[in-house]
Design a protein that fits this description.
The structure holds 2 protein chains of 2 kinds.
Chain A (H helix, E strand, L loop, with lengths): L2 H11 L6 H26 L22
Chain B lengths: L7 H9 L5 H19 L2 E4 L1 H16 L11 E5 L26 H9 L2 E6 L11 E2 L3 E2 L15 H9 L4 E6 L5 H7 L2 E4 L19 E6 L2 H11 L33 E4 L1 H4 L5 H16 L3 E4 L6 H25 L5 H9 L5 H21 L5 E5 L13 E3 L2 E3 L12 H6 L3 E8 L5 E7 L5 H14 L1 H4 L8
Parallel strand pairs in B: 2-3, 2-6, 9-10, 9-11
Antiparallel strand pairs in B: 1-3, 4-5, 6-8, 7-8, 7-14, 11-15, 12-13, 14-15
Helix pairs in contact in B: 2-3, 2-5, 5-6, 10-11, 10-12
Classes of the chains: A mainly alpha, B alpha/beta.
Chain lengths: 67, 475
């Protein structure tokens, strides 16, 4: 992943300013995100088409509650 | 310091019968805080005056015969992520310096209703976004078993205070393991209940869809008593579940511990193969052997796999960034360096990755639902290693060398429970050769906390040499 891609994401997509701290982080982010996003794509490739996302803020599905 | 060595289960009848006064108990708790804080740094704020005033109020009630239940008159603390009316709530960060909420978190109100006495706010990993509790602003939480070592986190001060006896119980939060990791590292009991079981209203969020609130206590019975008072539907919490409340101590009182014979117990050695340090591996092997010897039916599972651990982090990264975005822009310099590093990264997660992580979560829940047709509980170690020295730059994660401040190594075994939302309890199961605590986890079915407590209680009662051992600060 190119560092310039992240710079543009910050300023053009997220409407943020780049500061010295953030600039310093970008080379490590580029490395870490590449692997992480690849892992997501790899997992998603095997999803059945009909798999819908979990409801974001709902409780876990209720099953038989045993005491 | 006789009283603060006792559990809630031991103290409650003494308070009820007026043999012990809440004021006397609170005074002893405050003395214990003074005595232990130089060593463990578990508190950010101590509310001595307010605590003594509250203790006098509940004492008067008990004297009038209005006893409310097992938490009445019990001193407790809360992670400094819970909003407390008129008391500074910092989240362990300079960003919230001077923040004094006008209202309580729902669970703090629930504790007031139960008659518990708040003695202070516990130190934590800044904004709960980390697992070592090495706090840049307030200093590191120190492990009562060896103050040179980390407590784990993010509820590190909570677990340290309970282990050191400067709090009878504490309220923690768990987004990737933040109740269970410090419970394991500090040799106490912590439960992350089912998502939706306990209100999160008024608790500063880290990741709305992954956050849970729950208790850290000195015994399984105590954790059950506290969760009973915490739990309940809250229409003002978007994630709250309309599930009837239960008395979780009911299955532990006045009867023999649960008979383990025939209990269907799932384990997945493949998941943590090659990742456990020898002391943890050995302790967990003994746990499994105990269940087997008691007549449990062991089922070796091929799930979970590691995708939930890897991909699940996307959810917390995205949600935590979203919550902190404006503060990162306006006062980013106030965050500690490691949390700022972790938070800013979340801005680069594409929406499709977030949605795919939620799709994986749905698939994960379907798989667990299938698995739980065949098992009653699922067991695993809590953390892959015992607590390590504060400031340790790197630790081993399998064959990798990683920085535990930015790598989720300590969450490897715990984050699965936040991802699927199931109830998981961590309790002590042994000690390393250095005398450091080791814990294991019991995961139950959704809203099956009662069963989890009964299984944990059976193990605890059978292992007094572990559950009754106290850290060196008691000597």
């Amino acid at each position: 992943m190119e560092i310039s891609t992240l710079q543009k994401a910050t300023t053009e997509i997220n409407g943020r300013k780049l500061d010295a701290n953030l600039e310093e982080y970008l080379p490590r982010y580029a490395l870490e995100l590449e692997g992480l996003l690849r892992a997501v794509r790899d997992v998603a490739r095997n999803f059945p088409e009909e798999l819908a996302p979990a409801a974001v803020f709902s409780a876990a599905p209720r099953q038989t509650i045993d005491k | 310091m006789v009283l603060m060595q006792k559990t809630i289960r031991e103290l409650a009848p003494l308070l009820r019968s007026k043999a012990v006064s809440p004021v006397e108990l609170t005074q002893e708790c405050l003395q214990r805080i003074e005595q232990t804080e130089p060593a463990i740094n578990a508190f950010i704020t101590v509310t001595a005056d307010a605590a003594l005033q509250a203790a006098a109020t509940v004492e008067a009630e008990i004297l009038r015969g209005r006893y409310r239940g097992p938490l009445h008159g019990i001193p407790y603390s809360a992670k400094d992520l819970y909003m407390t009316r008129g008391i500074a709530t910092t989240a362990g960060s300079a960003v919230l310096a001077g923040n004094v909420p006008a209202t309580n978190a729902a669970v703090i109100d629930a504790m007031e209703t139960a008659g518990a006495v708040l003695v202070g706010k516990n130190n934590l990993h800044e904004f709960a976004y980390g697992t070592t509790s090495e706090n840049d602003r307030f200093g590191p939480c120190r492990n009562p078993w060896d103050p040179r070592r980390v407590t784990g986190g993010s509820s590190g001060g909570s677990a340290a205070a309970v282990a050191a006896g400067s709090s009878t119980f504490s309220l923690g939060t768990d987004t990737g393991g933040s109740i269970r990791i410090p419970a394991s590292f500090c040799g106490v009991v912590g439960i992350k209940p089912t998502y939706g079981r306990v209100s999160k209203r008024g608790v500063i969020p880290l990741s709305w869809s992954m956050d849970h609130t729950g208790p850290i206590a000195r015994s399984v019975w105590d954790a059950a008593a506290v969760l009973t008072a915490m739990a309940g539907y809250d229409p003002d919490d978007v994630g709250s579940a309309a599930i009837p409340t239960e008395n979780f101590t009911a299955g532990l009182d006045g009867e023999q511990p649960l008979d383990i014979r025939g209990l269907k117990v799932g384990i997945c050695p493949r998941y943590h193969e090659g990742m456990l340090q020898p002391a943890v591996d050995q302790a967990f092997t003994q746990v499994v052997a105990w269940f087997e010897n008691q007549g449990a039916q062991l089922r070796e599972l091929s799930y979970p796999d590691r995708s939930a651990f890897t991909v699940g982090s996307i959810l917390t990264m995205s949600e935590a960034y979203t919550y902190h975005e404006q503060n990162l822009e306006s006062c980013g310099e106030k965050y500690g360096p490691s949390i700022r590093y972790r938070l800013e990264k979340g801005q680069y997660i594409p929406a499709s990755a977030y949605v795919n992580a939620q799709r994986l979560r749905q698939q994960d829940r379907q798989k667990w639902a299938e698995i739980y047709r065949e098992i009653d509980v699922f067991l695993s170690p809590t953390v892959v290693m015992p607590p390590f020295p504060i400031g340790t730059p790197t630790v081993m994660f399998g064959q990798e060398t990683v920085n535990p401040r930015v790598h989720p190594v300590l969450m490897f075994l715990t984050s699965l429970g936040d991802f699927n939302g199931y109830p998981v309890l961590s309790l002590p199961c042994g000690f390393s050769a250095d005398g450091l605590p080791i814990g294991f986890q019991i995961q139950g079915k959704p809203f099956g906390e009662a069963k989890v407590f009964r299984v944990a209680y059976a193990f605890e009662q059978a292992h007094p040499e572990v559950s009754e051992r106290k850290c060196g600060l008691w000597k």
